[in-house]
C-alpha cells in the first residue's frame, strides 16, 4: 500500500467533513480530559488518604468535674489518678497502638486558644472546663473500633473519638465527585463514538465512486478501508493531544501557579507531575485506538467492500 495515497485520502476526508471532524476532536478532547481528570482525582484522594490517615489520632477523653455533673458517661465522677494509670497501662498493652500521648487540661486549653483564640467562647473558657485526654496513634487507622470497644463506657472515660471518621466524610464527598465526573466522561465518550461513526459513514458515502472503482480494479478491503480508519484515528489523536495539554495546563495553573493551591492549601498533599505525566500515554493511546476501532466496525457494516 502506498503511504502517499493513504495520506492524501486522509487529507481529503478531513477537509470534506471539516465540521464533523472538528466535532469529533472537541468531543474526544472533552471526554478524555474528563477521563484523565477522574484518574488524577482518584490518585489525589488516595494520596490524601495516605497522608492524613497516617496523622489521625484516636482520642480518649477523660471525665472532668463539669462532666460529672452533666454527662451520663461521667456519672461516677471525674477521672482519678488510678483510673488514668490503668487506662495508660491498658493502652500500652494493646498491639494495635503505636504511640500514646497524654494531653493535660492546661495543654488542651493552650491548643484551643491557638486554634480558636478569636472565638467569643474562648474569652470565657478556663482550663478546668476542658478535658484531659490520651491521643493514640494506631499502627493501622482501620483498627479504631478495637480501642473504642475497650474504653467506651469505662469509669473515668467521657468518650472515644476517631478523627478518621471526620476525614471519611470528606473522602466520600471527593469520591462522589469523582464518580460524577466519570459519568459525564462516559456520556461524552458515547457522544464521541457516535460522531466518529457518523463521520466515517458520511466520508464513505461521499467517496462511494472512488471506492467502487478501487473495488473493480481488485483493491483489497483493507486497502479501501485504511484511509477512513486513519482519518478517525488522526482526528481522535488530535483530540487526545488537546486533552493532554488541558491536563498539563490545569495542573500548572491550579496547583503550581495561577491559583497556586499548593501554596494556599498547605495542609493538602497534592499529587506531583509524575502522576500527570504517567496518564498522558494512556490518554493518547485511547484517543488513537478508540476512533480507529469505531471506524473499523462502522465500515464493516456500512461500507460494502
UniProtKB/TrEMBL annotation:
Which Pfam families does the record match to this protein?
FtsX, FtsX_ECD
- Give the InterPro entries listed for this entry: ABC3_permease_C, FtsX, FtsX_actino, FtsX_ECD
Q: Where do the FtsX extracellular domain residues begin and end?
A: 56-160
Q: Where in the cell is it found?
A: Cell membrane
Coarse class of the primary localization is membrane
Keywords on record: Cell cycle, Cell division, Cell membrane, Membrane, Transmembrane, Transmembrane helix
What's an example GO BP annotation here? cell division
Q: Does the keyword Transmembrane helix apply?
A: yes
Q: Which GO terms describe its cellular component?
A: plasma membrane
Organism taxonomic ancestry = Bacteria, Bacillati, Actinomycetota, Actinomycetes, Kitasatosporales
What's the stated role of this polypeptide?
Answer: Part of the ABC transporter FtsEX involved in cellular division.
Report the sequence similarity comment from the record: Belongs to the ABC-4 integral membrane protein family. FtsX subfamily.
Bilayer disposition of the protein = Multi-pass membrane protein
Nucleus in keyword set? no
Database matches in PANTHER family: CELL DIVISION PROTEIN FTSX
Q: What is this protein called?
A: Cell division protein FtsX
Could you give the subunit structure recorded for this chain?
Answer: Forms a membrane-associated complex with FtsE.
* Domain ABC3 transporter permease C-terminal: residue ranges: 183-301
Bilayer-spanning residue ranges: 21-41, 179-200, 232-255, 275-299
